[in-house]
Structures are given as structure tokens and as C-alpha cells.
Design brief:
The complex is a heterotrimer of chains A (307), B (323) and C (537).
Chain A: H1 2-29, H2 43-53, H3 59-73, H4 87-122, H5 127-141, H6 144-158, H7 174-200, H8 203-211, H9 215-227, H10 229-243, H11 247-253, H12 258-268, H13 271-299
Helix pairs in contact in A: 1-13, 4-5, 4-7, 4-10, 4-13, 5-7, 6-7, 6-11, 7-9, 7-10, 10-13, 11-12, 12-13
Chain B: H1 23-33, H2 35-53, H3 88-124, H4 126-140, H5 144-170, H6 174-182, H7 184-210, H8 213-220, H9 225-262, H10 273-282, H11 288-316
Chain C: H1 2-19, H2 25-32, E1 34-38, H3 54-63, E2 68-70, E3 78-80, E4 83-88, E5 94-99, H4 113-124, H5 142-146, E6 158-162, E7 165-169, H6 177-181, H7 191-197, E8 221-227, E9 231-236, E10 250-254, H8 259-267, H9 279-288, E11 293-306, H10 316-324, H11 328-335, H12 362-371, E12 383-388, H13 391-408, E13 412-417, H14 419-427, E14 433-439, H15 446-449, H16 466-475, H17 481-498, E15 501-512, E16 517-518, E17 534-535
Parallel strand pairs in C: 1-10, 12-13, 12-14
Antiparallel strand pairs in C: 2-3, 4-5, 5-7, 6-7, 8-9, 9-10, 11-14, 11-15, 16-17
Helix pairs in contact in C: 10-12, 16-17
Classes of the chains: A mainly alpha (307), B mainly alpha (323), C alpha+beta (537).
């Protein structure tokens, strides 16, 4: 167990380094630079700014300096278009928002999706199964930028219950969390139904039933653990994705989260911000994957010895 | 079940010898019984035909007519018109071409890479496998959307040059070439990251097949490893691969839709279902048809792919009862 | 199952509870005197020496006040701001500003001429690398100081006569100087606060967001709160000299980038004013709720730059033919609601009469094309129109494409690039036609003409006309406003004869405004003074 964790950590560090390098190369390959503006900046001003930001140095020197800053000072760099703003500030201010939205959506997804999938599996091919899975299909087949505005228009404009956008009162959390949550609930429902069915058709279940174990015990005691494995595997990256912010949801509902920063950073060619966000996201994903792996091992004893 | 009791003497002996079948025929047989899957299959065929052949009979998708903008469906325009008076039906059909192309080609690329990679890793085992899977784990940590965006920009200039070159050498119309070449970044990005899951699936399948007897037999016959791998093992695991493909295509199409939302997908005046849906969602209060029709096509295709995938999974699963 | 039902019931109850809320944000804003406006994007900063955009200028207008303030109703009229009087000498080259003796900063400190001198030195300091420093090149010696030809600021025409008297010496006669002074680059900055946070020319100090206390400014409002990507709110500044006449209590700026979300928010009662409006929403509101819609002329022009370094665009006859073959009204009718036909480059301004040269004349266009050697379009290469991916731009390009095909027989193609890639390509002259626009910084033709001078960073066409340059230079020496306008008109005549850029339309601003907002009049520069806004229930 300990060895597993250690090897994962080392692997994680390598991954982050790979991420760092790949992003560094990619962002500098994009056409343009942080100083391309609609109204031209005088040439001598441009030179001064580039020098100040360290962009005049050869690429490899920039790489080294940035890497050193990240590792030694936890300093992820600066923004080029906003004087005096540091990347860590941006992450600090936007991450809590994305985290809140992510946790709420995750909550909704779990509470709605997993029971739906389990029930559908247990009552396979019944009306309940078909209606639940059809509902899930809607969540899977419609993009968030359709569901989001639809909910906003219905509950915000026509019914007037909620604001159509913004992130100021707790009631503003409802629509975006619902949009993101229901979509992920759909995936979870399908995955848990599939996983449950796989287990339910197995011989040992038949044995349990034959032995006279009551229905609900069959489900909770014997099936759930194995049946939910695919759903749990999905959860890891999904969670990381949710908390790193969904740009689409943030744009539709005017939410000051990390997703907007991600996309705007690319348009603005904010090299340091892009790298900082990518690294942060990488850490989130690695942590989430590790958590999921541990959870899987806890649930499925057969995996314990496999590593 | 115990086999101690002999068969009853009165049992009927089947006079007809059961025809020998292959895995595929069995699977097809099972699949054809699944009504949802078969319906989806034919529906998909219909949609593909509509998208690729339909435009030949439809109006132009790019002619602007401001006197008739945001119109409801009529005899002239079966689906109505969009905010610039362009015929929505033809835009949906042309858009289908792009969306389906993206879905199929990008997934195809990813699957090809993934199958080869996973097969090699699974068969080689040991250190090579460990190293290859390390790389997979690392790539999983990359934020997909960001990478696609970065790729799109980095590749956009070379893609433009590619468009020029294609037009010059083949003489095709820019209007047909450029939508495809501008999607090249998307294909590359998806290919770069999208093969990871299929590689994992293939690897685990290959690893379990590796232990089977027919492989041992082949080895003892002296067949080369490549031959064993690609001639004998891979065909057996095509099942999960196909299932995965049908389930991955929707994901890719959704991704294309999100990219259109970001302005990185197909550029105007071309359309894809994703960009049409985005335009429709923006204008859902003034022109609901603009959202309804593309969403209908999009969702139906995704639904059909999902049902078909499920059906294939059930059909190809040997455990799926003959009992 | 029961668990899920319970949760669903809880969700519904929550929604119903939220529904009990009756007052919209706009209602509350009206009641509390806070003006809520959409401001398109997150501001890049609040330092007047650092920012360059229109949306930032909207916020800075509330926070800072220069020597003069633009009138809220009459275009181009400048009223006393921080200065009581502004007196030019006979040549309009030396201007003396007499500041209000009771002028204060929002922290109570005295506002003096030293603050202005400090501000001008700061924006011109080469180390600060202010992106808009060239707005101050009207000052004598400013350009040399900014380009490090001298390190001595006393060579620049800024002189503090005494605490409340400032003398500005310009590089030449500038009768329109008050027009320039209302721009935020000419605003004062609080010397004491800026120096507390760092050196005069240090980039990135945090004087605009100090940890203790609030940002110091001298305008009718001061910064109250700023949450990135969420909102920026300013509240009334009690030390403002005219505070008792400021009707509203604050302004809340919302950075809503998606204009459909914005109009949805307006309709849901979350805003008082939007930043813009999508074209089909304009139609919708015109038909259904015209009282909410505002369509006002805006000082800007849409045009297609031509890369005159490439054949055949180097031939002015070709460019003129292309311009004559564009039916501007048709384009305006289809994609640009409210915009007006541009018969010249400079939009209409009081006292200035640009030559009425540009029009739609396909016959003349055909003739010119033939004269240039491309009769009927034969032999004309397939050129490309470069765009940034915006829907309106693409539609306009399609319209132009079909017009050129129909009237001139030539084929052009449309090339879409992402925004920064587009800017980059345009600035490197890697295009044939580039769809662009220009919004005026101040209400004078010069802001639309100076950019076409050879070597100007905003030219980006390669057009190099000595006669044009000479006329512009001549205008720098003209003290008489009317004579100066005549010279500029002559220069513009050359510009529209040679058309290195093909004007397409003059801007109009389409937006939604809550009818309870008063004191808001159409302004060409859209520089509404918030201190004049009031609510009427």
C-alpha cells in the first residue's frame, strides 16, 4: 500500500513535469504573443514590456527560470496584460467558486444518478427502467449550452423564480449546479446500471438468491460494491473536470470560476497563466485519480494484491 | 447440474444437425433480435445518407436573405430559416456532414492508435508494458479541452497552408475543402488524447487472451509474435473495440459542439450541428426552430449510437445467455 | 428510492422558496440608487496609465476626473472638471489650467497641480512602458522623453506655476486640446498613494488595490468592491467637489461577455443597461418593446484594410473600383441595424465636412476596373478577406463577396482566424483584405486621420502617401480651428480618393436601457457622465 502510494507520487511528479514542458512548448507555438493589441503599442514600449516580463530571453532560459520559480517559490508567474496580478492570485480567487460549483454538482449527480442506475438495473426492462434511462439519455445527448440556457429561460425568465445569471446569493447556485449535476447524473446512471447488471447476471448472485437472501440485501451487500466500480472510475476525472470549472457553464451563468480564466488565458496568450492553470488542473486530476484508485482497492479486495 | 441420470429414452433426437456458426453470425443473430439496436442501426444509416446525399437535393445553405430571416417552417423552407434567412434544412444536412465526419474520423484515428498501442503493451507485458502504461497515465492528466484549443491554434496556420495545397493540387472547391482542413486540428488533438481509453481496454483484453490455449498453440507452432498478435488475438477483441467506438463517437461530437461554442470549431459560413445548436440556444426565445431541428438530429444520432453500442455489447458478450 | 424522493422534494421546496423573492436586482438598484450596467468584459486594470480599452474607460470615467469633463448632453462640449478655467494663448499652444482650490482626493488629501504633473511624468516614463503614452505626445518634448532621448522631464511642456495653476506647453497649435483632455490618459493620479506603493515608474504596483483602505481617486465615485469576472462596484465619493449634485449612490459594472446572456439578464431585471445587443434582438425589441431600445450614432467606422504592398491592390483604381462596388445600405440592412452609410472615413462631427466621395456606383466601378486592366474581372487574382471569427464580420464578408462577384466579376475568399492570430497577421501585413474598425479616442477628425500616416503603428496597410502626410503635418501648425478643419478635409480627400481602406459603415450603438434611468442622452463618444444619471421611479 505504501509502496503503491510512493510510486504513484513519483509518477505524479514526472507527469507534472511532462505537462509543464508540453504546455510551455505549445503556448509559445501559438501565433501571436501577449502584446498583440488592436490599437498598436509603440515599438519602444513593447520592447520595454517584453524585457520586464522576461520574454526577450531565449526560450530555454525562460523555461529554466519559470521552472525554478514554480518549484522553489511556488510562484506561478505573472499576467502580461494585467500589471501586478500574479497567477496564484487568480487561482486563489477563482478556485473556491469552481470548487463550490463542482461539489454541488457532484452532490446532485451522485444523489440522482446512482440510485437511478441501481433501480433501473434491479428492475431491468420494466417501465421504470426505460423511463429512467430515457431521462438519462437526455442528459447525455444534449450539450450543456442547451440545457443551461433552457433552465435559465424557464426558471429565470418565464417563471421568474431565479436569476438567469450571476453568483451572488445562494439561489444563484441552483441553476448552474443543476445543469452540470444532471448531465453527470445521466452518465452515472448509465454506468451504474451497466455495472450493476454485470454483477447481477453473475452466478454468485443467483446462488445468493437461491439461498434465500432477501432482495434488498442482495443489492446492498453483494452487488453494490462491484456494480458501482465503473461509476467510481468515471467519478475521478469527472470531479476534477467539474471543479476545474466548466467554461460553458461559467459563460452562460456569469460565474467567476476557473474555467473562464482557462479559456481567456489562451485567447490573451497569457503564457504563465495557462501554465499555472494546467499545472493546477494536473495536480487535481492526479489527486482525484489516486483517490479513486484507493477507493477501488478498498471496495474490491482482489485488486489489493495485484499491485 | 448432475449428469448421473441418463437421458430419458423418450427424448427426441434432433434430426437436423445444428449449423455451425461463427462468433460474428451469432452476434448478428442476437443483435437482430434487439429491436432498439436494429432500429438505431437503420436510423443511423438514414441519417448518414441524408447528410451526405441529401445536400445534393437541398437548397444552398449559405445564401443570405434578410427579408425572410428567423422564419418558421414553411413549404419553401421545411425547417424555417435562420437569423440571416438561410435555409435551415440544408444547413442541418450540410452540418451533419461535418459533425458525422468529425465523429467518425476522429474516433477512427483514436481507435487505430489505441488498438495498436494497447495490443503491443498487453502482449509484451513486463517492463515494456509498465513503461507504456506509465505514459498513458501521464497523458490522462492533461486537460483535454485546453489541449484541443492549444492545438487548434498551433495547427491553424499549417492547416491553412494545407488547404491551399489541396485546392491547388486537386482543384476542388474551397468551400468543400476548408471545412475539413480546418477540422484537422481537432482530429489531431483527439487523436493525441482520445486513444488512451481504448488502449487501456485493448491492453486488458489482450492480456487475458494471451493466457488462452490457442495462443500457446500458436506460439509452439513457431508463429511470429506480430502475426499472433494481429492475426489471432486482435480479431477476437474487436468486439469491445467496436462497442467502445460507437460509444466514443457521441463524446467526440459533443466535444465538437463545445468547440463551436468557444468559436474554435467550424467557422461561419460553414455549419456543424454543434455550431447550429449553439446559435439556436442563443436565440431560443426568438426562434425556437433554430434550436429544435439541429438538436433533434444531434440527439437522435447520439441516442442511436448509444443504443447500437449497447446492443452490440449485449450481442458480442459471450456470457449473454443462451440460457 | 425514498431517499431520492426526499431529495427531489427538498430541491423543489428550495426552488419555491427562492421564487418568493419579488424584487429584481434592477428594482433594488433603483431603490438604492445603484446603476447596474453590463460592461462586456473583465477590466484589465484600473490604472489610467496602464489600460487601453473602451470598457476600462467606462469605469475610469466614474473614478477619475481630468481638467475637463464631457457634457452629458452636448457632443464635444467640455465643462470645467478639476480645473475651473482653461485658458489658451493666442496660438492655442500654451494652455493654463486654474484648478479648483477645493479639489480633493477621495481620502481627503488636497488635489493640486503637482498631482497632474506627476501623472504626466509617470505615463511618459519609459520604464513604466505605458501602452497609451502616445496620447500625450501633444505635449512639447513628450515623445523625446518617452523614447528616452532625454532623461530630463523638465524639457517636457508641463509646468507647475503654483499649487493650483498648471501650464501645459504643446508641440504646436492645438485648438481642440479640450477634446483631448477628457480622455483618461490625461487624468491626475494621487501622487501620495502611488509613491506609497512603489516608485513613479514601477510597473505593477498595487496602488489600485491597496490592502488597507481603498483606491484613491478624484472622480464622482470611488472604488467599493471588485471581484474578478463577477462585478466591479463604485460608490459615491464624498470628497468630490460636486458631490451634492451627484444623484445616484453608485455604479455596478458587470463583465458579461456573452451578449445573449446579457439581454437575458436585462429581461430578467438584473441590469439597467446593456453594453450591446445582438442584431436579431434589435429587431425583436424594435417590434415588441421599442421604449427599451436605444440606437445611437457612435464615433467609429468599419472598413476593410487593403494591403497596398500586394498586386493588384497597389493600384488605387482597383481599390476605388472595389469601394464603388459595395452597396453599403444593403449590408447595413442585413447585418448592422442602426449603422449609417459612410461616404467618407471620418464620421460626422460638428463643423467638419468630409468630402462626399464614396458611394455605390457599379457602373463606375466596372469602368475603373477595366481601366486598370481587369475588364469583367478577367485576370484578377483570387484574393482573401481576413476576419476574426465574429458572426457579423463573416456575414458582412459574404455580402461583400457576392457584391464583388456580381458587379466586378471577381472572386474573393473568406479566411477566418482566431482573434490574436488575426491581429498578428494584420500587423504583419500577411493579408489581402482585413476586416477592421476604428473607434475615435476623442471628438476630432485627427484621431481618424493620423493613423494613416506612413509608419504609424495603426496604419497596417503599407500606404505611404507623402502629400497626405504633409497635409496632416500642416494641420499641426494651424491655430485657427476652422482653417485646421479645411486642411484636414483636404487630407481626407486624398484618403478617400486612394482608399487604402474601404469604409463600410459608421457605427451605431444598439443597447437596452431601463426607462427609469434619466440624465442619459445619446453621445457620439458614449462617454456618459455618471454623475448626471438619476433614477425616476
Amino acid at each position: 500500500m505504501f509502496r503503491l502510494l510512493a510510486s504513484r507520487l513519483i509518477q505524479g511528479v514526472f507527469t507534472l513535469l511532462l505537462l509543464f514542458t508540453l504546455t510551455f512548448v505549445l503556448v509559445r507555438l501559438m501565433p501571436g504573443n501577449p502584446y498583440v493589441t488592436e490599437k498598436a503599442i509603440p515599438a519602444h514600449v513593447l520592447e520595454m514590456r517584453k524585457k520586464e516580463a522576461g520574454l526577450g530571453e531565449p526560450q530555454i532560459v525562460q523555461y529554466g527560470i519559470y521552472l525554478r520559480n514554480v518549484v522553489l517559490n511556488q510562484d506561478l508567474g505573472i499576467l502580461f496584460k494585467k500589471d501586478g496580478v500574479r497567477v496564484t492570485e487568480v487561482i486563489k480567487s477563482s478556485f473556491p467558486v469552481s470548487l463550490t460549483l463542482g461539489l454541488l454538482s457532484m452532490g446532485i449527480a451522485l444523489i440522482v444518478g446512482i440510485p437511478a442506475g441501481v433501480v433501473a438495473a434491479v428492475r431491468k426492462n420494466s417501465l421504470v427502467d426505460y423511463s429512467l434511462m430515457s431521462g438519462a439519455m437526455i442528459g447525455i445527448c444534449l450539450p450543456s449550452f442547451v440545457i443551461g440556457p433552457f433552465l435559465a429561460v424557464t426558471f429565470g425568465l418565464h417563471l421568474g423564480w431565479l436569476n438567469v445569471a450571476g453568483w451572488n446569493t445562494w439561489s444563484d447556485w441552483v441553476l448552474p449546479a443543476l445543469t452540470l449535476g444532471l448531465i453527470n447524473a445521466a452518465y452515472l446512471a448509465r454506468l451504474s446500471r451497466g455495472g450493476m447488471l454485470e454483477i447481477l447476471t453473475q452466478d454468485f448472485i443467483r446462488t445468493a438468491r437461491a439461498k434465500g437472501v432477501p432482495g434488498h440485501r442482495v443489492i446492498t451487500r453483494h452487488t453494490l460494491r462491484g456494480g458501482l466500480l465503473p461509476a467510481i472510475t468515471f467519478l475521478g476525472p469527472a470531479f476534477a473536470g467539474m471543479i476545474s470549472g466548466s467554461f460553458v457553464i461559467e459563460t452562460i451563468f456569469q460565474i467567476p470560476g476557473m474555467g473562464q480564466h482557462f479559456v481567456n488565458a489562451i485567447t490573451d496568450r497569457e503564457y504563465d497563466l495557462i501554465q499555472g492553470l494546467v499545472l493546477f488542473y494536473g495536480i487535481l486530476i492526479l489527486a482525484a485519480n489516486m483517490a479513486v484508485d484507493l477507493l477501488q482497492i478498498a471496495i474490491n479486495p482482489r485488486l489489493r494484491n495485484a499491485s | 447440474m448432475l449428469r448421473e441420470h441418463p437421458m430419458p429414452a423418450t427424448a427426441e433426437v434432433p434430426t437436423e444437425v445444428e449449423k455451425g456458426t461463427s462468433l460474428w453470425r451469432d452476434a448478428w443473430h442476437r443483435l437482430s433480435k434487439n429491436r432498439a439496436a436494429m432500429f438505431s442501426f437503420w436510423l443511423l444509416i438514414a441519417i448518414v445518407l441524408l447528410s451526405f446525399v441529401g445536400p445534393l437535393f437541398a437548397q444552398s445553405p449559405t445564401v443570405i436573405n434578410m427579408k425572410n430571416d428567423s422564419a418558421s417552417p414553411s413549404w419553401d423552407h421545411w425547417f424555417g430559416t435562420d437569423q440571416l434567412g438561410r435555409d435551415l434544412l440544408s444547413r442541418v444536412l450540410y452540418g451533419g456532414r461535418i459533425s458525422l465526419l468529425v465523429g467518425l474520423v476522429a474516433t477512427g484515428v483514436a481507435v487505430n492508435i489505441g488498438v495498436v498501442y494497447g495490443a503491443i503493451a498487453g502482449y509484451a507485458g513486463g517492463r515494456i508494458d509498465a513503461a507504456m502504461m506509465r505514459l498513458v497515465d501521464m497523458l490522462f492528466a492533461l486537460p483535454f479541452l485546453v489541449l484541443v484549443m492549444l492545438f487548434s491554434m498551433v495547427v491553424s496556420d499549417p492547416a491553412a497552408k494545407l488547404t491551399e495545397w489541396v485546392i491547388e493540387t486537386t482543384g476542388w472547391q474551397r468551400d468543400s475543402v476548408s471545412p475539413i482542413t480546418t477540422l484537422v486540428p481537432l482530429f489531431i488533438a483527439i487523436g493525441f488524447i482520445g486513444w488512451l481509453t481504448i488502449a487501456r481496454i485493448v491492453r486488458s483484453q489482450v492480456m487475458s487472451f494471451k493466457k488462452q490455449e490457442f495462443v500457446e498453440a500458436a506460439v509452439s507452432l513457431g508463429l511470429s509474435r506480430t502475426r499472433i498478435l494481429f492475426r489471432h488475438i486482435v480479431p477476437n477483441i474487436i468486439g469491445p473495440v467496436i462497442v467502445y467506438t460507437t460509444l466514443a463517437v457521441p463524446g467526440v461530437m459533443l466535444l465538437e459542439a463545445v468547440l463551436s461554442f468557444l468559436g474554435l470549431g467550424v467557422k461561419p459560413p460553414n455549419s456543424s450541428w454543434g455550431s447550429l445548436i449553439k446559435e439556436g440556444a442563443d436565440r431560443m426565445e426568438t426562434n425556437v426552430w433554430l434550436l429544435l431541428f439541429p438538436s433533434l438530429f444531434f440527439s437522435t444520432t447520439l441516442l442511436a449510437l448509444n443504443f447500437l453500442g449497447d446492443g452490440l455489447r449485449d450481442a458480442l458478450d459471450p456470457k449473454a445467455s443462451k440460457d | 428510492m425514498i431517499f431520492t424522493t426526499r431529495i427531489v422534494c427538498l430541491l423543489v421546496a428550495t426552488l419555491a422558496l427562492a421564487a418568493c423573492r419579488k424584487e429584481t436586482n434592477a428594482d433594488r438598484g433603483t431603490r438604492e440608487g445603484v446603476f447596474i450596467v453590463g460592461n462586456s468584459n473583465e477590466p484589465k486594470g484600473l490604472d489610467p496609465h496602464q489600460v487601453t480599452g473602451v470598457l476600462e474607460s467606462n469605469i475610469l470615467r466614474a473614478l477619475f476626473e481630468g481638467l475637463v469633463t464631457g457634457d452629458g448632453e452636448v457632443d464635444g462640449q467640455m465643462n470645467p472638471g478639476a480645473a475651473l478655467r482653461l485658458e489658451p494663448d493666442e496660438t492655442a499652444t500654451v494652455w493654463t489650467a486654474y484648478l479648483r482650490p477645493d479639489g480633493k482626493w477621495s481620502d481627503g488629501a488636497e488635489l493640486t497641480a503637482h498631482d497632474f504633473a506627476f501623472a504626466y511624468e509617470r505615463i511618459l516614463s519609459p520604464k513604466l512602458a505605458a501602452k497609451y503614452a502616445d496620447m500625450l505626445y501633444f505635449l512639447r518634448g513628450a515623445e523625446e522623453f518617452n523614447k528616452e532621448k532625454t532623461k530630463d522631464f523638465s524639457t517636457v511642456g508641463v509646468e507647475v506655476i503654483d499649487k493650483h495653476t498648471l501650464r501645459l506647453t504643446l508641440r504646436g497649435p492645438t485648438p481642440y486640446f479640450p477634446q483631448l483632455l477628457q480622455h483618461y490618459t490625461w487624468a491626475p493620479v494621487p501622487r501620495h498613494a502611488v509613491l506609497k506603493a512603489g516608485k513613479i515608474d514601477q510597473i505593477g504596483t498595487n496602488w489600485t488595490k491597496p490592502k488597507a483602505g481603498v483606491m484613491v481617486s478624484n472622480g464622482p465615485f470611488r472604488l467599493k468592491s471588485w471581484r474578478v469576472n463577477d462585478h466591479l462596484e463604485v460608490e459615491r465619493n464624498p470628497h468630490y467637489w460636486d458631490a451634492k449634485n451627484v444623484s445616484i449612490n453608485g455604479v455596478r459594472f458587470l463583465p458579461i461577455s456573452n451578449s445573449y446572456t446579457e439581454s437575458r439578464m436585462f429581461r430578467a431585471g438584473q441590469l439597467h443597461a446593456t453594453y450591446g445587443l445582438p442584431p436579431e434582438m434589435v429587431k425583436y425589441f424594435k417590434a415588441n418593446e421599442p421604449k427599451l431600445l436605444r440606437q445611437e450614432p457612435y464615433v467609429g467606422v468599419l472598413f476593410y484594410r487593403c494591403n497596398v504592398t500586394r498586386k493588384p491592390l497597389n493600384d488605387p483604381r482597383v481599390r476605388r473600383a472595389l469601394s464603388l462596388a459595395i452597396d453599403q445600405q444593403a449590408i447595413i440592412d442585413s447585418v448592422l441595424p442602426g449603422y449609417t452609410k459612410s461616404y467618407a472615413m471620418v464620421p460626422p462631427m460638428a463643423g467638419y465636412h468630409p468630402p462626399q466621395v464614396l458611394k455605390f456606383d457599379p457602373a463606375a466601378a466596372k469602368a475603373l476596373m477595366a481601366e486598370a486592366g481587369f475588364a469583367g474581372g478577367k485576370g484578377f487574382p483570387r484574393l482573401k478577406i481576413l476576419l476574426a471569427s465574429k458572426e457579423t464580420a463573416a456575414t458582412m464578408a459574404q455580402a461583400v463577396q457576392s457584391m464583388w462577384r456580381e458587379h466586378l466579376g471577381i472572386e474573393v475568399e473568406i479566411e477566418n482566424k482566431e482573434w490574436t492570430a488575426y491581429l498578428d497577421a494584420m500587423q504583419r501585413l500577411e493579408y489581402d483584405f482585413a476586416a477592421s474598425g476604428w473607434i475615435g479616442d476623442y471628438l476630432d477628425p485627427l484621431t481618424f486621420l493620423e493613423m494613416w500616416m506612413p509608419g504609424n503603428g495603426n496604419n497596417n496597410t503599407g500606404w505611404d502617401n507623402k502629400e497626405f502626410a504633409a497635409l496632416i503635418e500642416e494641420s499641426f501648425k494651424e491655430a485657427d480651428a476652422a482653417a485646421r478643419f479645411r486642411t484636414l478635409e483636404k487630407a481626407e480627400k486624398i484618403l478617400v480618393d486612394e482608399v487604402p481602406a474601404l469604409p463600410l459603415a459608421w457605427y451605431s450603438r444598439n443597447y437596452l436601457l431601463d426607462p427609469r434611468v434619466k440624465g442619459w442622452s445619446p453621445l457620439l463618444l458614449d462617454n456618459h457622465p455618471y454623475q448626471k444619471v438619476r433614477f425616476e421611479r
